[in-house]
Amino acid sequence: MFDQSLLATWFDLSWMFPPATMLSERLGWVLLHTTWQFSLIAAMAGIVARAIQGRSANVRYVLLLVALILMAFTPLITWSVIPSASASAAPTMDAIGVGVSRETAPLSPTIGEALAPPHSNRAAPAGQQAQLTSERVTASNRQMPLVTPPESPTRSASPDWNTTLVDWFRPWLTTVVWIWCIGAVGFSLRPLVGWKNVRRLRREGVVAAPRELDDLFRRTATTLGIVRSVDLLSSPLVRVPVVVGWLRPAVLLPVSIMGELPVSQIEGILAHELAHIRRHDYLINMFQTVLEAIFFYHPAVWWLSHHIRLERENCCDDWAVHATGDRLTYGRALLALEDLRATEPILALSAGKGPLVSRIHRILQIAPVRTSSQMSGWSASGVVAIVAVCVGLCAGLPAKPTESRDESNTPAEATNPTREAWPMGGGSPSRVNASPAKHLPAAWNTEKGENIAWQAPTGTISYGSPVVSAGKVLVGANNGGFHIQRYPPEHDLACLLCFDAETGEFLWQYSSEKLQTGRVHDWPMVGLCSTPCIVGDRVWLTSNRGEVVCLDLNGFTDDENDGPLRDESSTAKDEADVIWKFDMMGELGVSPLYQSCSSPVIADDLVLVCTSNGVEEGLKEESAAPDAPAFIALNRHTGKLVWQDNSPGVNNLGTQCPSNSPTVATIAGRQQAIFPGSDGWLYAFDVAAMQRGATELLWKFDVNDKRAIYRYRGVSQRNVPMSAPVFYENKVYVTTGRNPEHGDGDATLWCIDPSKRGDLSQELVYNRANPEQPIPHKRLQACDESQGDFTKPNPNSGVVWQYRAFDLDNNGKVEFEETFHRTIGSAAIDNGLLFVADYAGIVHCLDATSGKLHWTHDALAQIWSTPVIADGKVYVCDEDGDVTVFRQSATKVLVVENVLDESVFSTPAAVDRMLFIGSRTKLFACRQDATRTPAEMALDNPSTPVERVNAPPRGDDEFNRVVDMQGRPIAGAQVEFTKSIRYPWLETPPPMGVVVTDAKGLFAYPDSLLSTESFYVYVSADGFLTRFWHGNRDVYRLIDGDRRADTLVLFRPVKVSGRILDREGRPLAGAEVAVDYFIDDGPANINGHRVTSDAEGRFSAEGLPPANLFIRYEGPYATADDRMPVGVQSASFLVEHRQGVDGQPLEDVVLDLRKCNCTVEGVIVDHEDKGVPGRWIRATLASAKGRLDESIRVKSDEDGKFRFTGIGPGEYVIGTETPGATQTVRAV
Questions:
Q1: Percentage of residues in the chain with pLDDT exceeding 90?
Q2: d(Cα 44, Cα 67) in Å, to the nearest integer?
Q3: Taking CA 528 as the corner, what is the angle to CA 879 and CA 490, rounded to the nearest 5 degrees?
Q4: Which of 32, 274, 429, 810 is 20 to 30 Å from the Cα of 628, by its Cα?
Q5: Which pLDDT score, from 0 to 100, does residue 356 have?
């Protein structure tokens, strides 16, 4: 039988109107559609005009005029016909442009329908729909997942002529619009020039016509029914009669006409010109001129406008013949004027003079002659019409039936994880964190070497995740591993290490020096945090110095120094071969907070990174570089900047993290680059536009409730997307969180539909002052109800579902483990199951389609990393060094817990038979041996008990010891046991018992605690403080009744006392003195001790550890020049260094402000040695080695000169806020 769907396919013209919300793109489609629309209108008008050629000129004139009006309205109709995926949200767009997607669902009239899945053809029942609407609009903490019904059958996903044509035109739309704008402006100048000439004709050299001609003129005007005042003037500047003006029109006659033409012929000419005035032809002529300027590119417009002018002249000829009653005399008058004819200004006449011969033939009623101009007009329109029709027929042909194939997850290049490679963070540009690798171990034992292929030292701290490609594994760390001889381990570096994946042999190291500004931009002792990206033999990473770096995967082992950068300081075999570098701080003014740490991703020839641009260190309330870009794209081969964007701008919250990185998604053959913004928004841009250096914002999404408040300290609900979004089966999944220092508050996991366009946020914010117009986003709180703000549901919302909490056990309350907390890592998704671990240590398993919660698990330790799915297993690493392995199942099956004995902050990498795990100081390569362990067998039998690998033997009766710093036992020390809670320093944990050390300082854990999975131990003794000061006690965390012998060290506190003198040497009362300290060259205790001097200028600080002490004057002091005032950014430049000794006081410390008489001055210059004005210059204590916040800053003057005055003696590191070069100077 005849297939009706085939007929629908043949006549389906929806492909011709792809959805668009961006003004430029929408306008581009409209302009393209006019090419065939105008040709069709002109062709139809020409055919009808030809058919009625024997009718009056007025009939043809009206017909052609109607066709021109139809041309004017057709683009407006086309504009309204083009579907818009964000019409309702258009007022909230920050950018003028967004892209289009053929798969975008039309907007629904109700909120419930607008939030439904875009491909659903089934309407929810009324009750269910109301429930979904409520769930989307309210900020409920209880999860109410949206169940997506099955998708209806659709046309083949393979590209057909329609899709190919639309996709071919789409990248050129912006260019088309720009060319059109330039042409329209240029053609708009033509009437302005004509208008100027008309004014000149009206004012220069005109005189009144002779009386007899004026009387004839008045009689003719009366005959034609003209009642308005019209002047008849004589001008030497014209050679044919001209009508000028429209408010008070005038007819200009050439001076020569009065002596060369008889009055009878002049009468006909005057009647013709007066007919133009009587018919108000100047209005139609202005309308034509406007359309010619707008649609200058289309020959059909010019052809139609030309023939309207011809027919208008014919109409006025008919009026003139009617007024004079003599065709022959009027024809002779036209012949007489031919010799006087000249080119007139375009707006001077009511219309141009038509072809003379044709007009005379028509007046004398002789058969018309087809002219060449008519033939050329028809030919031009015919060519355009034929091309448009051919394109329409080809594009309308039904596509050849092919097997439907989902290519939405196909990346720009072969960068997906394979069984032999895990080339980037998340495994692929879509960051799904799932590997096709097989035969992976579930359990291993580092002490016995079971399932351990090799292990290698990396450094003293490692946050970067390993990546694997071409038989090599790369991981970031610091220089503590001592892999190359020219850098001793105490030399602080950020390093990328390369090992042989099979043997663990060290191959080469990339070494990056630390920035002189210290912790402001580059936290000390923290290694390389960026997870590199590998494609082919190239490696891209973001260094600690704010650089995007490209390396040769083979290093110098291939005996080649690849370029363009060839001046490496060393070309030894164990050093990295640098291809190119791009300095984001020097070139773009980026100011990272703590460290640049984005993990790059590749999209075609672009490498995409987040710049880590942060807020001002110490202020925490404003962006350090608000004009610097947040997202950039570089040419991956050359390192040249191709594109940049600063969407977060001044709304930057500065809570960046090592995993804050972009994602690349492909939907319907169109690539999207999805960037997590530090302002709490996701931004998606068109990759094709980025390659041209253009910004095309496709959509954006606020990951927070609009009423959420951001605070740097204290309770804060506003979070940011800390990790790379995940793209899976045409949906985007994003988690929210904060800097780990800010705690583990509540957060949200979002599922978003990226096929929509515009602002996809759940709600829009309005203000009572203008309740119909959404207001711009505000940094700290989007909706401040105290200022009259309120929210409305967003009809264009892209939310599919959200997860915050769910009462899984149906006990009527949401427990801690049933709540989603702030998260540093991303989600891992495979086979419809989503796994995500929050910072509080809870592992969540959800249905990726509906958001339904299946199960949770409390790891009893903080989790920084992302789960990895591979070989039917889910690997989760935590801060306690445990690697928990689950079955990939909607039912919770915990297979095994592997213990590494040190923290794991990174995400594993999985390839065939090998699992690479980077712990705090080592890289482990776990390989499946031939013998199956009980953990592997547990995958086949869910009832198999959980095995704890590497756990110490139970029943160990060794005692724990409490000693002082000299190793002497402390008798009578109190050892308190409490229940394990998340933050024991924020609330008091429930007690579980107390023991006291004996005379030898020994104690044992009570047997009652052996059945407790986790508890805390606090140790205190009279006259002692804990070794690592934490308020007034230390926390020792134990897991699963661990009874290994521990030695707990206490120290006797140090007391610091002294006095402070002002600039005249007198005691200074009320001065604030800060005492900070370093322990084992670790970071400073940021809180420190703050004391105030008494009336005699004396101060005293107690309870300090025997460490390297910094005793500093904190204020108050007079603010001078551009120095930041106290309370905004402290500047401690009077420092006394002392080494504390256990239990011994430090007395007679003198802080003498008379020493603050030093001056440091200089000049900042650019590459051409010219002074740079208005640049902030920062001075930081060199002795603090970047571990103290304190610095002072001034602004350079118009010559680039700067001056620090009133500072104390010592070494200072001088540099800019976004440093390039720095210099260390000594003030004496």
A1: 21
A2: 9
A3: 95
A4: 429
A5: 66
884: phi then psi, degrees, rounded to nearest 5: -90, 135
- Candidates 93, 124, 90; CA nearest to 107 is 90
CB atoms within 10 A of CB 548: 26
- Residues 949-985: pLDDT tens digits? 444 443 334 577 888 877 888 888 888 877 766 555 5
d(CA 110, CA 105): 14
Structure tokens at 142: 């209880």
Give the number of other Cβ atoms within 10 Å of residue 533's Cβ. Answer: 29
Q: Is 158 exposed, middle or buried (0-12, 13-18, 19+ CB in 10 A)?
A: middle
**Burial of residue 1225 (number of CB atoms within 10 Å: 0-12, 13-18, 19+):** middle
Q: What is the mean pLDDT of the chain?
A: 75
Is the alpha carbon torsion for 961, 967, 971, 977 positive or negative? negative
- Paired with 897 in beta bridges are 884, 948
Query: Considering only CA atoms, which of 535, 456, 506, 502 is closest in space to residue 914?
Result: 502
Would the CA dihedral through 713, 716, 718, 720 be positive or negative? Answer: positive
* Segments in 657-714 forming alpha helices (H): 687-691
What residues pair up with 1144 in beta bridges, in sequence order? 1141
C-alpha distance from residue 721 to each of 330, 734, 822 (Å): 82, 7, 10
What residue type is assigned to position 193 of the chain?
V
The model's confidence at residue 1116, banded by pLDDT at 50, 70 and 90, is low
| CB 1176, CB 1083: distance < 8 Å | no
- 391 three-state secondary structure: helix
Q: Give the CA count within 13 Å in the CB-facing half-sphere of 777.
A: 26
pLDDT computed for residue 1064 by the predictor: 82
As a whole number of angstroms, the distance between CA 1026 and CA 1020 comes to: 7
Distance CA 463, CA 899 (A): 18
Position 83 confidence tier, pLDDT thresholds 50, 70, 90? low
Q: What domains sit in the chain, N to C, each tagged with a CATH number?
A: 175-381 (no CATH), 434-762+797-917+927-949 (2.130.10.10), 960-1047 (2.60.40.1120), 1054-1227 (2.60.40.1120)
Q: What is the SS3 assignment for 1167?
A: coil
Residues 6+ away with beta carbon under 8 Å from 1161: 1201, 1202, 1203, 1204
Look up residue 952 and give its DSSP letter: P
d(CA 794, CA 514): 46
Q: Bridge-partner residues for 456, per DSSP?
A: 923
Instruction: Give the span between the Cα atoms of 502 and 924, in whole angstroms.
Output: 12
Please state at what angle helix 57-81 crosses helix 281-294, rounded to 10 degrees.
Answer: 40
Calpha distance 527→463 (Å, rounded): 7
Cα(324)–Cα(223) distance, integer angstroms: 10
Average pLDDT over residues 923-941: 68
Query: What's the one-letter identity of residue 360?
Result: I
Which residues are CB-contacts of 159 (< 8 A; sequence separation ≥ 6)? 167, 669
pTM flag (> 0.90): no
Enumerate the β-bridge partners of residue 1139. Answer: 1108
Task: Name the residue among 1092, 1087, 1097, 1081 with its Cα closest to residue 1184.
Answer: 1081
**The two structure tokens encoding residue 1216:** 């800019």
Please tell me the distance from the alpha carbon of residue 1217 to that of residue 1175, in angstroms, as a whole number.
8
Whether residue 38 is predicted with pLDDT greater than 80 in this model: the reply is yes
What are 102's two structure tokens? 């053929």
Amino acid identity at 342: A
Tokens of 600: 């790059």
Residue type, 875: Y
Give residue-wise pLDDT tens across range 458-477.
Answer: 988 888 899 999 999 999 99
CA distance 473 to 504: 9
Structure tokens at 671: 């690539």
178: which 2 tokens? 């720009």
Q: How far apart are CA 984 and CA 953, in angstroms?
A: 28
C-beta separation of 1101 from 1076 below 8 A: no
